[in-house]
Amino acid sequence: MARKDLLDIASLHREEIEFLLDQSTSFKEVFTQSVKKVPALEGKSVLMLFYEPSTRTHTSFEVAAKRLSAEVTNFDVAQSSITKGESVRETIETLQAMRTDYIVVRHGRSGLPGMIARQTKASVINAGDGAHAHPTQALLDAFTIKEKFPDPTGKKVLIIGDILHSRVARSTSTLLQKLGVQVAYLGPGSLVPKYGPASIRRFTDYDAAMAWAPDFVYLLRVQMERQDVQFFPSLREYHRLYGITNTRLEEIRQRGLYLMHPGPVNRGVELCDAVMDYERCLINNQVENGIAVRMAVLDWLTPGGEAPRPEPTFGRSAAELSHLIV
């Protein structure tokens, strides 16, 4: 089942998704023990190639790789020849000469990780490309939901915010639907695209969306840096119409709904401060689960042009993995 690259969710079969989520469970059980390292990628190298700022995703991948005993190199784009006019292709040729095994790439241009994957034998993982895809975020979201509902079929997830510019919304909604989850979008009409799967409900009114009776409310970060025009009057107005205010949080608490957010959060925009103390807020769970999911992905992928690793760890239970702890 192993692939060379992970570039999107759309190309994954449900069996592959279920496999990765099962392996994420095993890795989470391992690294929550007192000793957190396994030698699954010992002797392998992971290159972090981030053309956009990132804290959570970058750190999560780095921690995941190190817990698999891989060597991690951070490619400093700001200090590289890229700033002197070097093309992405020239950069990849340089990186290929370094014989790296895995490249984790984030770029503002949709499709660029795929281009890199075609030019290198290294396994390429898309850590977010433009408004296109963010596959590991979708996997960790699904993993977090499955922790609450092992069979999420028929559950409802309401995604609120800037759908138009959100790679998270695209990837997560695609994956959830593959698992039988119902998905709906809520946001300003200018930020909720009318095109896309007919199976996804679209709302522009908060009360109407909540009448749909979701089990999870998934808040997206308002990405002002991706908006080349003004899509709503002000951030204060956005919070009033679509944010989780103190009043709405109390209603959510009474209904027992779960809250999620890919981070980083904009307090006073997507949510009020009290959300972080809400007992069914899963934002910190998502951060922890991101490490397990990315460990599973790194362990699953097989760089092109090399023989499969001896004694592979994928497809094995936590009990089987535990003897590998170092």
From TrEMBL:
Domain Aspartate/ornithine carbamoyltransferase carbamoyl-P binding: 4-147
GO terms of molecular function: amino acid binding; aspartate carbamoyltransferase activity
GO terms for cellular component: cytosol
PROSITE patterns, sorted: CARBAMOYLTRANSFERASE (PS00097)
One Gene Ontology term from the biological process aspect of the record: 'de novo' UMP biosynthetic process
Known catalytic reactions: carbamoyl phosphate + L-aspartate = N-carbamoyl-L-aspartate + phosphate + H(+)
Keywords: Pyrimidine biosynthesis, Transferase
Superkingdom as given in the UniProt entry: Bacteria
Bilayer-spanning residue ranges: none
Gene3D superfamilies assigned to the protein according to its UniProt record, in alphabetical order: Aspartate/ornithine carbamoyltransferase
Binding site for carbamoyl phosphate: R56, T57, R106, H134, Q137, G263, P264
Record bears the keyword Methyltransferase: no
Subunit note: Heterododecamer (2C3:3R2) of six catalytic PyrB chains organized as two trimers (C3), and six regulatory PyrI chains organized as three dimers (R2).
Function field: Catalyzes the condensation of carbamoyl phosphate and aspartate to form carbamoyl aspartate and inorganic phosphate, the committed step in the de novo pyrimidine nucleotide biosynthesis pathway.
Record family assignment: Belongs to the aspartate/ornithine carbamoyltransferase superfamily. ATCase family.
Name recorded for this polypeptide: Aspartate carbamoyltransferase
